[in-house]
Fold Tyrosine--tRNA ligase.
Amino acid sequence: MTYHPKSEFIATMMERGFLADCTDYQGLDEALMTPGQPAYIGFDATAKSLHVGSLIQIMMLRWLQKTGHKPITLMGGGTTKVGDPSFRADERPLLTEAQIDDNIAGIKKVFSAYVDYNDSENGAVMINNAEWLDGLNYLEFLRDIGRHFSVNRMLAFESVKSRLDREQSLSFLEFNYMILQAYDFMELHRRYCCVLQMGGSDQWGNIVNGIDLTRRTIEGEVYGLTSPLLTTSDGKKMGKSQSGAIWLNPDMLSSYEFWQFWRNTTDADVGRFLKLYTELPVDECDRLGALEGSEINEAKVRLANEVTTLLHGAEAATAAEATAREVFEKGGVGDDLPTLSLSAADLGDGMSIVQLIVKSGLAKSGKDAKRLIKENGAKLDDEPLTNAGLMIDAAALTSPIKLSAGKKRHALVQLDA
């Protein structure tokens, strides 16, 4: 693409690798020459925390605010009751209102680390789409909104087509999701003069629907912009690790484990991830990403420190790096490792080492833990662990023990004081 943007935001999106597609580059670019333009990304409340897979969108909102515009974090209190079918193989489980509210409360904690909520021209605002969706009258909605949607066109969207091509069920409930998301954009434009919806490239069809509906019903001029769906260079989905999702809330994943995820980045991804997930100048990202040998490891430490500082603060990043160096370079225990605390009652007459490995999060199941031991991938206090039948009792925990899965994943097990 040869378009040369005038606005700082579009230039940043293009330069740092955030931009997959846009409905009207020139129109949006010109609109963003006026400061304080509101733009939104929607987040459904399907869990108590977002994970790393959502971080690219959160960083887009951060850059939007840094370049003088107004981020809207739209919480899907209404749409979560339906569930987004985009590129899923099955229907999402339905959540109760209490579960949704609980999830929203958890997700809210993350955003304030990245955007500043205030009353200024470019101050971020948080809005819940239940504000307008909960009170909809079904017949009025069908008459006023439904008539603008072509089923033929909706069936042609890739997110729906891929599901139908696999002959997997798509409920009417889910089919309505794209209409509700389009309605969100229209309402945000009507109520808050929102001019832009952003999202991952899997949201393209939903975003285009919202633009069409807004133009048809209130003749509003609005735009859509998508980011690429990220996979790591080895083809894995961004946000997943061997031990599960990389959550952003510290009560679901420790700052050390978050730091370690970034430290373990594949060499080929370092430069790209520095541009997307940190605020380092692009030239510096390119320089660090081009390093080789042992030097690329220091670039990974820089990546881990920068990303962790944004989410958890500089102190957490420094502590995580110190723990990592203690564990990896000096063979020590480290104060900041994930820790499993057990009472004497928990242990009873003893707990198997396999159970401890699972409880500490180093394996998903007893079967995985046994395979880890059999393949010589497990260590106890830095010594190879070969006996899957080993029992650990309270006497063995007079001081904490360190469990390791491979070279990079560790946990402490200690007795409650």
In short: The chain has 19 helices and 15 strands. The radius of gyration is 24 Å. The domain at 8-227 is CATH 3.40.50.620 (Rossmann fold).
